[in-house]
Amino acid sequence: MKVLHVLDHSLPYLSAYSFRSLYLISQQRQMGIVPVVLTSPSHESNEETCELLQGVQHHRSKWSEFYYLPQPRFIPGLRHEAYIAALAKRTIQVAQECEADLIHAHSPALNGLAARRAAKHLKKPWIYELRYYEQDAAVDSGQTSYYSLRYNLARWFEERALKQADLAITTSTSMQKELLARGFSSRKLLEVPEGVDTRVFHPRPPDAELLERHQLEGKTVIGFIGSFFKYEGLERLVGVMNYLLRERRDIKLILAGAGEMESQLRARVPREWSDHFIFTGRIEQEDILRYYSVIDICVYPRLSTRMTELTTSIRPLEAMSMERAVIGSNVGGMAELIKHNKTGFVVETDDKVTLGATISHLINNSSERKEIGKRARAQVIKQRDWANIALRYADIYQRVLSTKSAKLLKGIEAPATEKERQSWQESQPSESRTKI
Asked: What is the dihedral of CA 267, 272, 275, 280, to 10 degrees?
C-alpha cells in the first residue's frame, strides 16, 4: 500500500509536528506500508525538489507566483485559493508519480483542501488529520484575535476539510470531544493520539560531556526541552526557579530550545544566579536524547488557552519514556498524558506556589523521582508507543480504501465465478487496485 502524506513541513526542521510525522512514517515503513511525503510551501525550500530522508522520498513544493504579487493577494480568500490550487497541482503530480493508493493530509486545513481537490481529480480516497487548530495557534502567537475575520475564515476552512474528508483523525481526546459537541459525526471522526518511539527514547546514563560542560555534577537538574512560545508558561518556571534559589544552590535549570520568548526569559534571570540557568539555544535532533539524560525533573507549565486545552504535546511523553519525573500544568491536553501522583504531577496553571513546592519535593526525594519515572515509562509503553499507535492507521487505511472501492463499484454486477472474478480484476486499471 502506498500512502502520500501531505505535510506542512518535515525534518530537517525540528518541531513537535515534524517528530510526529517522523514516528508515523518510520512505523509505517516497518509495517510494510510505503509512505511518500509531500511538504507544503511552508517548508520553505521554494523548489520542486525531491530528497531521500531516512529511506523515504520527500517531495518539496514552491510558492505560487501569486504570492509575489503586490497588495491584491491580501484580499481574503485569494491567497488561500492560490495556495490550495498550487498545492493540489503538486499533489496530483506526486501522487501519479508514486502511484499512491490514498492521500493522507495533515494540518493545516489548506493542506486538506488541496488534498481533497487532488483526490477528487484522481478518484482516490483521502484522509484529513487535524493536529491543531491553525486559528487558535495564530491567536496564541499574537497574529490575530478570537473571532476576527482571519480567525473565522481559518475555522471555516477547517470545517470544510473535516466534513469533506472520507475520514478525519484527531490527535487528542479533548479535540475529539470538542468536535463531537459541534455536531461532527462520530462514525467519521477517529482519534490517533500522540505517542513516542520507546525504543529510541529509553533510559540512558547521564551524558558525561554535558555534565562537564554545564557543571552539573552534584546538582539536581530541572529542565524544559521545546520551543519557547508564550503559551508554554516558561516565565513562571523561571520565576519559580528564582524563588527556589533563595533557599538553595544545588539546582540548575536547563532551557533547551529557542523561540519568541527567549529574550524575555533571559531578562528575568538575576545576574548573580546566571550560572544556575542554562540556555542551550536550538539543539540538533541527536542532542535531544543527551539533554534528557542529564535532566532529573522535566517541567511543562503550559498556560490555559483554547489551543493548549485541546492539543497535546509529545515532549512530556519523550521525558516519561526516558524515566524522567514530569510535572505538567492542569490544561486539557497535558492532563491527558499524566496520571497525577502516579506517573507524574499535575498542578493548577496559575498556582506557582504548588509548582514550586512540587519541584522542591522532587528535589528532596530522588528515590520517588526514580519510581515515578519507571511508572511513567511503563504507562507510555502500554498506551503511547508508536509501534502500537501506528497499527490504528493500518486499520483506518483499509477502512477508507474498502469504503471507496465499494462506492466506485456500486451498481456493477460482480463476476459469478472465481475465474471470472480473477479475469475481471486483471482487466481493471492498475491504479484502481490496492497495492499491499
From this structure: 10
Cell numbers given for 201: 527514547
C-alpha cell at 155: 475555522
Cβ partners under 8 Å of residue 168, min gap 6: 127, 128, 129, 130, 161, 162, 184, 188, 189, 190
Element containing residue 423 per DSSP (H, E): helix 418-427
Phi then psi for residue 203, to 5 deg, are: -60, 140
CB half-sphere exposure, 118, CA atoms < 13 A: 32
% of the chain surpassing 70 pLDDT: 89
Among 261, 209, 260, 208, CA closest to 234: 261
Length of the chain: 436
> For residue 22, how many C-alpha atoms fall within 13 Å in the half-sphere facing its CB?
17
Which helix H or strand E contains 104, and what residues bound it?
A: strand 102-106
407 pLDDT band, cuts 50/70/90, is: low
322: left (phi over 0), alpha (psi -120 to 50) or beta: alpha
- Comparing 16-25, 103-112, 263-272, the range with the smallest average pLDDT is 16-25
**Which domains are present in the chain?**
2-191 (3.40.50.2000), 208-383 (3.40.50.2000)
Amino acid at 357: A
Reduced to 3 states (helix: H, G, I; strand: E, B; else coil), residue 2 is: strand
- Cα–Cα distance for residue pair 302/299, rounded to 1 Å: 9
Measured in degrees and rounded to the nearest 5, phi and psi for residue 36 equal -130, 140
pLDDT tens readout for residues 357-384: 999 999 999 999 999 999 999 999 999 9
Q: What is the pTM of this model?
A: 0.86
Instruction: Report pLDDT digits (tens) over 163-209.
Output: 999 999 999 999 999 999 999 999 999 999 999 999 999 999 999 99
Q: What cell was used for 1?
A: 500500500
Q: Rounded CA gap, 310 and 134, in Å?
A: 12
Residue 104 has pLDDT above 90, yes or no: yes
Q: Which of 27, 233, 243 is nearest to 140 (CA)?
A: 233
Closest by CA position to 311, among listed 136, 128, 180, 110: 136
Does 406 score more than 70 pLDDT? no
50 has pLDDT over 60 = yes
Cell of 223: 529542565
